[in-house]
Amino acid sequence: MHKPEDTMLTRSKLYAFVILSMALIIFLSLLSVYIRENSTREAIDGQSGIHKGLLLTREAQVHFKKQVQEWKNVLLRGHNEEDYVKYLSQFMEEESIIRNKVSLLIDHLKNAPEARGLAIKFLETHQELGRQYREALQIYFESKSNRSVNTDKAVRGIDREPTDLLDDLAEKLLAQGEIDLQKIETDLQKVSWVIIGLVVTSIIIIAYLLMGLTNRLLKQSATDRLTQLKNRKELRVQLKQNLETRSKNYMLLIDLDEFKLINEVCGYSGGDMYLLETSKKLNSMRSNNETLFRSNADEFVLLTSQGSHPEVIRRAESIRKTIESFIYTFNDSDFQTTCSIAIVEIDSLYRDIESIYTNADLAMQEAKELGRNKVILYSPLNQGISRRQQEMRSVHGINKALLENRFVLYRQKIKSFDEKKHTTYYEVLIRLENPDGTMSGPHTFLPAAEKYKLMDKVDRWVITDICRHLTENPGDSDSYSVNLSGATLSDATFIKFIEETFSNLPFPTSRIGFEITETEAVKNLDNTNQILNVLKNHNCKISLDDFGTGVSSFSYLIGMNIDSVKIDGVFIKDLQHSNTNQAIVRSVIDIAKTLNITTVAEFVEDKHIEEALIKMGIQYGQGFGIHKPENINLINQDS
Known about the structure:
Strand order of the largest sheet: 9-10-12-13-14-15-16-17
Distance between the termini: 67 Å
Number of strands: 18
Structural class: alpha/beta
């Protein structure tokens, strides 16, 4: 059969892609933050460079003014040697500071050629200014009178050009700073738009790819990977829509009979190929108003709106015949299978999808029980379906009764025909107490319990409850015989249950015997013998029930460790009028005596049968002619 690894792989890819997409978006976001931070840092650095250039220019301006002032001090206050030397020294110091500042400024303005040119021109002008000042000092020393006036005339106005150059340089740097700031802002905007574009583009691409992967995953979740048909999930969606719109449709449940044989012989790959070929044949037969689904491993569903019961039955028959005639070849071997088809008419009476499925399953089970390769239209009037519905209700009732402890033990006497022994004991019977207080006989629920594998639970309840009864009612000194079903005889855990149940009982376990049917005992003879040996170790009596109806009754008497046989009632009811029955009963009696096994006759309905059995040598009898079943809980144990 097909496995869902591909769908799981696609989901893994989707999850991985989502994670990678988120990582990419986070990366781009972090990248944008980094670029903006870096650009901002560059802007700050650029502005810092402009600021430093302005600072050096301002310092040069200040010191130049001081130099000019010191020159005036030389002329106006340097009348004696001491003052002259003092002011001239300060003049020379300011000149040195200016040249140092402007040299630094020139180095700083490597990336600003125009401003750097102004700074160089200022430095050249300033050097020329120094030369002229020195020439003026020569005039100062040579003049005999009015030397300050003569010297001042020689240098008057020569400081204007350097001052203007420094002012122009300051203005140039301010203007350059504004230009750089605007450029940085423009660059930041461009970077921001580029990053936004990248992120938006990435998100769009990611969203597009995610939509593609999501649509693919949704398609896979709605489509069977092997056959590419719509799957069970989509079938439920379609059925829900039909129920909501109250539209009339038919659901054809197509189950491939014995498909597991193809799987076992051809393997899963061969089975998948068969399913694929079958789906193609079914799909080729589908009309435009029909929808085909693969609802399970070996099941298909066809929803059709064809109008009448005869039409839809003919449609189903054509499908059945097509599958029946299909020969599948695998590894040079030919295989031919059939299919069973259950039809459910979906009309306004349905309220939920589960009811549709339930009725389809009931019709399918009817088709299977009729031998497979059948078409069954669900109808509550169909006796087989009606019986199965009753069984399902019984199964629900059994499970609920087990939970609510509503089973009740009855008992029926097994009378000894040997008055000297008085070894009478009782068979344990079971009834189901209904919620309204009425009692249902075993025929109403035991067949369903046997069919749907609940008998082992019922058997354990009976054993547990009879042990409870004998524990709580010490005045009841009778012995009891409990029936064991075939399910219990095949249950490997039953021995453990017996050991646990029989531990620490306040009464001898020999008071509890067990009855097993011949037919069920021989189905799993090894396990049955193991259980019988354990029970015998607890001194329990074992009786073979319904004896005489099996195919090899006498041979099993020798192989099994039993204490008595209960002759089936079919040989007892007409005993007086059937020589054949009398012969069978005598043969059982003779074999039982030889094996030292006691005999019990069932269905002893009157005194005439009882007397005939006594004459034949039967040791025990049971039936309505001897004792009618009674509620074990209503017995007065003190009487």
